[in-house]
Amino acid sequence: MPPKPVVLVTERIADAGLQLLEKPCEVCAPWRQNRHPTEEEIGAADAVVVRLFKITDAVLSVAPKLRVVGRHGAGLDNVDLKAATERRIPVVFTPSAQTMANAVAEHAVQMMLALARHAVAADRLVREGHFAQRSSLQGAELHGRTLGVIGVGAIGARVAEICQNGFGMRVVAYDPYVEAQPSQAAFTLVKSLHQLLEQSDVVTLHLPSTPEAGSWTRLPWRKPSAAVTWGARPWTFSRKSRPSWITRLCQPPAHYSRRTLAARREQRWRKWRNWWLAR
Predict the structure, then answer these.
(1) How far apart are alpha carbons 66 and 6 in whole angstroms?
(2) Second label for 78, Cα 20 to 30 Å away, from 63, 69, 95, 193?
(3) pTM of the model
(4) Residue 153 DSSP label
(5) Are 255 and 133 in contact (CB under 8 A)?
(6) What pLDDT score does 139 carry?
(7) Are 206 and 159 in contact (CB under 8 A)?
(8) Residue 33 gets which letter from DSSP?
(9) Are 7 and 48 in contact (CB under 8 A)?
């Protein structure tokens, strides 16, 4: 009987997926030992399944047996497609996986709720015992507001559906690759980003890392009070081209004093030190 092909699974995936692989293949899963794959394991693999692990030209150069790369997800940003093509190694991925799209869409909606209700700041205040300051955080309802969705692939379309049907939001969307209004869509397509930004109370981004994305940072954000959620790749915008509203979102609440921030840093340092000493 010929030996089973070796499949290297670089990161945790669902048990159901592992069970499907283990029947016809020999599965190598170094994440079970909380470590990265070794060069020997990469070299012995006939196939690789990755999530965020980077498949670079250097990785492919030590994998002479590799016959296919499978990306567990929608994007291919972490795979060197040029190097794989030169070696005639096919790269497959799962752009239409409904469970993946729904998971990311729910996460985006959760971020909208957190922004609308100041959930992160309120949680910090309660944990630090500042109960009286909770009332200073004035939340807002999503019902009746306008959501602007940039990028209406599987994830963006699902976000629009959840927000329209679940919260009663009006949803407008912009996607340069969608020319006509889809039938039975949960959003109204607009012709430009300017039109979307003029009327949106909440903006959510669901787009790949492309050269066009960088130019979007220079667009004026018409509503200063608009909330923004980020469902795109973190490297969609570089640090240099990152718009000012991203910097503002990353800043601590205004009522946080220097003493409070210093105490939080000290708390994190002690927690890390205790973990290190207990190893």
Answers:
(1) 9
(2) 193
(3) 0.68
(4) S
(5) yes
(6) 81
(7) yes
(8) G
(9) yes
Question: What is the separation of C-alpha 143 from the centre of its chain, rounded to a whole number of angstroms?
Answer: 25
Strand partners, 79: 55
Q: Evaluate the CA torsion angle 53, 54, 55, 57 in order and state its sign.
A: negative
Residue at 195: amino acid letter: Q
Q: Over the stretch 143-177, which tens digit does the pLDDT of each residue have?
A: 999 999 988 988 899 999 999 999 999 999 998 88
- Tokens 């959501």: give the residue: 147
- CA distances from residue 18 to 7, 21, 37, 49, 226 in whole angstroms, order as listed: 10, 5, 17, 11, 43
- Give the gyration radius of the chain's Cα atoms: 23
Cα–Cα distance, 76 to 231 (Å, whole number) = 16
Amino acid at 153: G
Q: Identify which of 60, 49, 71, 35 has the alpha carbon closest to the alpha carbon of residue 5.
A: 49
Q: Going by C-beta distance under 8 Å and a sequence separation of 6 or more, which residues neighbour residue 70?
A: 47, 48, 49, 50, 91, 92, 93
Hey, what are 6's tokens? Answer: 């070796």
